[in-house]
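Per your request, structure below.
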């Protein structure tokens, strides 16, 4: 029910509010000639991030206090996978933004997207201190807390989001994710059911509501939720497969929970191999949980070819490898090359 790529902040359980910002935004009044910033924003909206980045930098040279340029530069760098540069730009933008909860939320979302989870939490918390009804920041906190192992806090933030925006289906779906426990599914089913009442065409909510019902043994309810042609047939088949194996399998709503369960179930000694690293969030978790050495493999240039609905190059970090850790060895390159070299050793 969840992809095992780096968090967790772009997976199908995510709501539309408070996620990694994919489009640029304006935060304040123009502070001088605006043509260059407008050009950068146009490139950014058209997903021409490489063209947008130098234009944002030119605006910053002219006006180092431009919140719009700093935060949108950070957002473009996030999309390019250039984590170190993105982090610096987002930090600067957040510092300049001061009391603007929307700007703080977007800075936090960008930090979360590059794996700076603890720092992102601080900035999300700043946003909700500025505006307790900031739904996007609440949902961002819910996601982060779940990935940091703080389930009660995740539920609390998601519940407060539903109180602030009771008609927002995405908030209820986020509450489903926070509440999800495959051994006590009632609270999660209730939340996703409310999301569907509010938005019957909400395909992601329909998928996860149906899957939860199937896992809970309600076959007729699951069929009703999954019917109508809203979902891809393969997804419906996958739910049926899960239902058939629910007596021996487990289902989780976060990368952290999945990896911890896998580590606990491992019975063989030896190193841990991770295939796909990106910004290294799951790598750091494995390094703490597995107890042995972690060999982490990635080209850091993104997918070498299109995969499902993902284009070639998605998940790139522009060649940037995460910080070294004592019990982690990073192997940079394509699996077919690096795995073969490592095996021969």
């Amino acid at each position: 029910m969840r992809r095992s790529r780096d968090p967790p902040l772009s997976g199908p359980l995510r709501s539309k509010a408070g996620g990694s910002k994919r489009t640029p935004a304006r935060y304040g009044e123009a502070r001088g000639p605006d043509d260059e910033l407008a050009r950068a924003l146009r490139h950014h909206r058209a997903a021409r991030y490489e063209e947008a980045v130098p234009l944002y930098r030119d605006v910053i040279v002219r006006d180092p206090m431009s919140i719009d340029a700093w935060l949108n530069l950070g957002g473009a760098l996030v999309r390019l996978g250039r984590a170190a540069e993105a982090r610096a730009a987002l930090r600067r933008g957040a510092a300049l933004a001061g009391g603007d909860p929307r700007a703080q939320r977007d800075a936090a979302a960008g930090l979360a997207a590059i794996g700076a989870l603890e720092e992102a939490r601080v900035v999300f918390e700043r946003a909700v201190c500025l505006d307790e009804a900031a739904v996007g920041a609440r949902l961002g906190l819910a996601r982060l807390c779940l990935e940091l192992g703080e389930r009660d806090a995740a539920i609390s933030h998601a519940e407060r989001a539903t109180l602030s925006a009771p008609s927002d289906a995405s908030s209820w779906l986020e509450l489903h994710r926070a509440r999800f426990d495959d051994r006590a599914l009632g609270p999660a089913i209730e939340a996703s059911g409310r999301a569907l009442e509010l938005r019957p065409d909400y395909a992601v909510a329909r998928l996860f509501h149906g899957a939860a019902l199937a896992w809970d043994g309600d076959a007729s309810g699951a069929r009703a939720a999954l019917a109508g042609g809203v979902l891809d047939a393969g997804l419906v088949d996958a739910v049926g497969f899960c239902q058939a194996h629910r007596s021996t399998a487990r289902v989780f709503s976060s990368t952290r929970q999945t990896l911890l369960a896998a580590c606990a179930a491992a019975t063989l000694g030896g190193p841990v191999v991770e295939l796909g690293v990106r910004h290294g969030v799951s790598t750091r978790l494995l390094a703490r949980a597995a107890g042995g050495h972690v060999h982490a493999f990635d080209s850091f240039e993104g997918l070498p070819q299109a995969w499902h609905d993902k284009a070639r190059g998605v998940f790139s970090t522009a060649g940037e490898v995460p910080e070294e850790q004592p019990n982690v060895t990073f192997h940079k390159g394509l699996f077919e090359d690096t795995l073969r070299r490592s095996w021969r050793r």
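The radius of gyration is 21 Å.

Regards,
D.
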